Amino acid sequence: MKNIWLIRHGESQSNAGERTDSPHLAGLSPPGKVQACEIANVVTRKPDLVIYTPYIRTQLSVKPLLEKFPTVTAEEWPLQEFTYLNQTKFHRTTRNERKAAKLDYWQKCDPAYSDGDGAESYYDFQARIEKGIEQLKKQTGYVLVYTHGHVIRAILWYLLLGRINRDEDSFKRFYHLRQALNIPNGAIVKLDLNNEEPEMSAILTDHLSC
């Protein structure tokens, strides 16, 4: 069994097309709540550590697991989603209403650009994820990480390449990666970071019914 499981949160209200106050406050949709339970069902032994992010959708996703293993050690880590749009400007919007602004952000191709309130630049995101990977490498035992789609992509990309360059080409490549690498809500990727060369599983979804 690979010792670290990267788990994407269940379907969020934003994923489902609902209007949300902000990225970090979006809860789970009804299918997302089902997925959260299905993730917990596939965990058959008590983890040594469970990690979740400051975003509500990961905290709700991890809840069934914490109820299943009430004495497990759980910690909040800053492995939240890459939030690159101004949160004040896009307060109470749907993903469809944000679509044009998202495309405009990526087409700017400026990895140092920040859109303002609550947004981070690609460089900020990159540095945050690299720090998180270094922390994960120090963990021993069986660790579950409830996190987000872009975060899982960034971690896998880093492990495949051994680094992520800080330049516009890296920004462009990550944009194409986010389009090409589908990580469904509730999916699991198992990692082994104990070896000199990291190992990873396929993107696992067989445990999901929706």
Shape estimate:
globular
Strand order of the largest sheet: 3-2-4-1-5-6
| SSE order, one letter for each helix or strand | EHEHEHHEHHEE
- At the first level of CATH, the class is Alpha Beta
CATH level 4 superfamily: Phosphoglycerate mutase-like
Strand content: 5-15%
| CATH structural fold name | Rossmann fold
Total strands: 6
Task: Report, as a whole number of angstroms, the end-to-end distance.
Answer: 25 Å
Q: What share of the residues lie within helices?
A: 25-40%
Uncertain segments are none
Major sheet attributes? 6 strands, mixed
Map the helices and strands.
Elements: E1 4-8, H1 30-42, E2 49-52, H2 56-68, E3 74-76, H3 95-108, H4 122-137, E4 143-147, H5 149-161, H6 168-180, E5 188-192, E6 199-200
Parallel strand pairs: 1-4, 2-3, 2-4
Antiparallel strand pairs: 1-5, 5-6
